[in-house]
Specification:
Layout: H1 7-30, H2 37-51, E1 54-55, E2 74-77, E3 80-82, E4 96-105, E5 108-117, H3 123-141, H4 149-162, E6 173-175, E7 182-186, E8 203-206, E9 209-211, E10 217-219, E11 226-228, E12 234-236, E13 239-242, E14 249-250
Helix pairs in contact: 1-2, 3-4
């Protein structure tokens, strides 16, 4: 079911957006050579506890997950691009790390993701990350009344295709509100003018993610982490936004 939020409800969602942004800022800043992924999860867990927030991940067990996730943040490294389950791994120089985090504050959820390079960057990794960021910006710019879901999807795809990246549509953006994942689905490729009409009050997470040389993925033996089929690296950018009569509100905007 698709729900439209009132102006007052969107205001009530702002604390969740600010909190999610703060956790991504803290964990991405803490990500350095030698830091263990479990330490990043512990940092996010402590921030949740201090804020009186609620994790959307730790008990999350959708049909595509092998078991409840058990951690509070996704840490996807190099050829892993989505749903990276934190494990005993110390970051190395040049690793491409994607962090995806969702939490609830006062019953309202926000969801966001960021990709960074740890230590010495590769040019091709920086280009991939920049493409996801620009695709996210393009998708947000298309999220205006009078457009449709397909206009967001097409805007994302145009940025990716201009850089030569192919696009997987198995996983994409989604509605956000009292729960982390709801309708509508927001694919990262689509036809303009098609799909759900965008109306003020619709709150969605827009999340372009691309792999360098493929659009095919497989599930790691941990039952969660999604990796590229050919070992190429991935990047992921995501914001929770609210559609208004004017410009979209980016609820998870980082400083």
């Amino acid at each position: 079911m698709i729900e439209l939020r009132t102006t007052a409800e969107i205001e009530q969602m702002r604390p969740a957006g600010r909190f999610v942004a703060s956790v991504l800022e803290a964990t991405s800043k803490a990500a350095a050579v030698g830091v263990n992924l479990l330490e990043l999860d512990a940092l996010a867990h402590e921030m949740i506890r201090e804020a009186g927030a609620e994790s959307c991940y730790i008990d999350y067990h959708p049909s595509f997950g092998a078991s409840p996730f058990g951690k509070v943040i996704c840490t996807s490294v190099n050829d892993a691009v989505l749903h990276g389950l934190p494990h005993d791994y110390r970051l190395r120089d040049g690793d491409l790390l994607s962090l995806d985090f969702a939490a609830a504050v006062d019953g309202w959820v926000a969801d966001s993701a960021i990709s960074v390079v740890v230590g010495t960057p590769r040019d091709e990794d920086l280009r991939l990350i920049d493409t996801t960021r620009r695709a996210l910006d393009a998708g947000i710019a298309a999220a205006t009344p009078g457009n449709r879901i397909g206009d967001i999807s097409r805007a994302i795809a145009e940025v990716a295709k201009a850089e030569g990246y192919s696009i997987n549509t198995d996983f994409g953006g989604h509605g956000v509100g009292r729960t982390m994942h709801g309708d509508p689905h927001v694919p990262n490729n689509g036809r303009p003018g098609r799909g759900l009409p965008l109306k003020p009050g619709l709150v969605v997470a827009i999340e372009p993610w691309f792999l360098q040389t493929t659009d095919r993925i497989f599930t790691d033996p941990d039952g969660w982490t999604l990796r590229s089929i050919d070992g190429s690296r991935g990047a992921h950018s995501e914001h929770t936004i609210a559609i208004t009569e004017g410009d979209p509100i980016v609820l998870t905007q980082r400083g």
